[in-house]
Amino acid sequence: MVSSSSTRSNSNGNCDDVASFFTKSDALFRKNLTFQRRNWKMNVGLVMFPFLLCLLMFILQLVVNSQLDKPKYRCGCKCVQIGNGTCQNRCGVEFSATQQQAFACPIRTPRKWPALFQIPGPRHRAVQTASHSFAGLPHSSCLKTGSCPVTSLYTGQNRSSAQGLVREIVIDEFPRNLVDLQSLVSLIYLGTYRKPSLTNFVESAFSSKYPLQVILPRCIPNFSFMVPVTLGNVSSQQEITCVESSYLWRENSASINKELLRGYWSGNSVHEIHEILAAYDFLNSNEFNFNVSFWYNSTYCNVITNPCLLRIPRSLNMVSNAFLRHFKDGGIRIPLDFVKEMPRAGSRVALNLSSSIGPLLFAWVIQLLFPVFLTCLVYEKQHKLRIMMKMHGLGDGPYWLVSYVYFLLISSIYMIWFAVMGSVVGLEIFLLNNYTIQFVFYFVYLNLQVAFTFLAATVFSDVKTATVLGYIYVFGSGLLGAFLFQNYVEDTTFSRSWLMTMELVPGFSLYRGLYELSQYALSGHYTGTSGMTWEDLNDQGNGMKETLVIMTLEWLIFLIASYYLDQVVSSGNGVSRDPLFFLGNFQKKHNRSFKISSRRQRSIVFVDLENPDISEERLEVEKILDEQGKQHPIVCHNLNKVYSGRDGNSKKHAVENLSLAVPFGECFGLLGPNGAGKTTLIKMLTGFLQPTSGTAFIDSLDIISDMDKIYKKIGVCPQHDLIWENLTGREHLLFYGRVRNLKGELLQQAVDDSLKSLNLYQGNVGDQLAGKYSGGMKRRLSVGISLIGDTQVVFMDEPTTGLDPESRNNLWHVVKMAKTNRAIILTTHSMEEADFLCDRLGIMVGGSLKCVGSSKELKTRYGGSYVLTISANPAHEDSVDSLVKGLSSNAVKIYNVGGTQKFRMPKKDVRIFEIFNAIENFKKQTSIKAFGLADASLEDVFTNVVHGASDQNLPD
């Protein structure tokens, strides 16, 4: 037997109890591990892809390093004469012919540079225009001559005090008898509109054709003079010109902010630039308190390089000295003689590929699991495997938990392998950054990716579509991250709120984190220090902290949204729940006696219109529901399923007012033509469809409200085989047996018995992949799945479809034995199968049950004819015809071969004794070899019922 009859009486009682949450989770986890182990091609791909990528990055890095190690990228050297006819090889910036060579040279004593102002360019200084009409600004006509002054704004709580400080800022005299540039800068305010350098090893203002400018309240005409400048071994003259300054009062800091915003290119509708030199808020500054807020232009910083250098020190020094002159002794000052870079050791020009192009490639590698997991979920959804598991007792809780943990475990192993391989080949994004930060970031993202996979799976119902769009998302998000999102990250003027909004896309949040790790690794590479540490999370511009917060919150939100949509929208989980199911069940529970009494009058109408056997069945159902103690495992009461009409068509009654009761030990057969409603009825009873009205009870549990509990008690053999092609027949039975709480030897014995009874044991057929089974073998496996364990109710939808006669006969005996402790509903098109297996039969036509009874009863009620068989000499065929026509003029010949003839005779025309008397008299005149009289076949009953329903214009 298939397991049930042997397990119910087992003294261990393992299967008498419902499997626990842990037992079901264990069963699913074992199944997933087996499936993963069998899918070796995908496993190899997942292992090799990170390995090959890391190896490729390692090889490319070697090639790049070998190119950058050539002399043109090393510090320039020259053999310098030392006086005795020989020369000594010396290396340094002064001997370097290119910028790349100079970059590689050691600088033990960096040069001192004047601390300059960052002056707005002549064409971008703040002026009055139609769209920028702030008080005090010069007219825009000065832009044509390049004579516009540089404007500074100021405010404070005490206007007179602020004005006094500004007066001390202004230097209106130009010093005489200049000795050198350094002495000049210490006395005046000197600036440039050249963009700053990346470092202070070289001040870009002195290596350009643009002049330096001294800031004065008023400039004399044609102000220009030259000062000597020495760069390395090269001496030159630097031109200095004059630019006038203007300090304008504003009422408060809000006014300053508004003016600065309107002067920004994207802050006004006409995209004009009105740049301010600086702005100050002196707040509550007085002789005892120096408190000032300072605005500066940060857009000079190259967005590709962050952090970078800006010319700010001189502005702060200027206002500090103004405070000392105004409130303290005029002789006190804070000198700012120069700025310089820290000494550095020699280095070679290098390009770190893992930090430069790593974010894009690593984003692709890490997201590669997303379409893999998505395909897995949608596959089980499309092929109805998830609802198949649910119908056999595996609830949503174990499925979600195990699938989540399983995906997270694979993701973690995959990520650890990737990080190990990257560290082994020397990828600095892994080596330089703190490993605990990397662990937290990757772990949070992997959880987010798994949750996102569950969310995406609710949208798709086709594996191919899900797979294609999954890979498009992976590669598309990576490319958009590298060529669009990264630009916004590096643009400090881009709205942070919009940036965070973009990071709501999981692919962008991953890219942001990888970008931050790569930038800190790049910085550590060039400075010889470590990459990102926990202290660095508080750095201005470091987006790792906000990324972790966004991913964590989104992870939780995605989980909740995934579960909700899975219950409400997804078609792979059976009947969809009400959108407000999370508010609790505020509807009244089913009150059976009320339901029955409210329908009693309508039932009387049914009795008047229905055949007597249907009426009796309906009354029996109502009696069962009224008598609480009388238990039937299957009770259907006035079940209806109506599909709304489309394109002007009328409504379709798939199942109409069906009432049925099936006791233990009975196999009830459903017959009917295609489209009669048999499969629709099975789908309602197994949770695939919600009834339009009426209900059914499985072991006293309502299919409308208690389907999750019902799944623990039923087995289902669906119309189409729902199996995993990469699992063996034995593994299928082991999985469903564990879900049914079979354990240990009891489980193994039940599986072996099932395989033997299904003819899948010999030749190790049960240990072969189910995907290689023939259609008949898959059908037998589906029957075995429905019968494994202690199921009280079994639904079989055409279980012997596609079986050869021997296998079909064997399976009949299996089902016949299995019904001992169960109630079984079976649909079939085989009259022979229904006659052999079913204790009672029901024929459905047009959604309605037209008759109910045993095979013998139906033949008696609806057969309507006898079949008379007579074997005689072929020469006497006409005499036999005359004999039969004499008995019944309505007799029809249905067979005639070699003297053997069969006739169908209406029962109303003849009596049995008349037939026998007529044949006995005929035998005296003609030789008859044999004769026989048989009642109508079940096929005749089926034909008569279907045709009778059609004659009454009932729906097909």
TrEMBL record:
It is found in: Membrane. Keywords: ATP-binding, Membrane, Nucleotide-binding, Transmembrane, Transmembrane helix, Transport. The chain crosses the membrane at residues 44-64, 357-379, 399-420, 440-461, 468-485. Residues 634-871 form the ABC transporter domain. One of its GO terms (cellular component) is membrane. It is a multi-pass membrane protein. InterPro entries: AAA+_ATPase, ABC2_TM, ABC_transporter-like_ATP-bd, ABC_transporter-like_CS, ABCA, P-loop_NTPase. Gene3D superfamilies: P-loop containing nucleotide triphosphate hydrolases (3.40.50.300). This is ABC transporter A family member 8-like protein isoform X1. GO terms for molecular function: ABC-type transporter activity; ATP binding; ATP hydrolysis activity; lipid transporter activity. The keyword Transmembrane applies. It comes from Cinnamomum micranthum f. kanehirae. Belongs to the ABC transporter superfamily. ABCA family. CPR flippase (TC 3.A.1.211) subfamily.
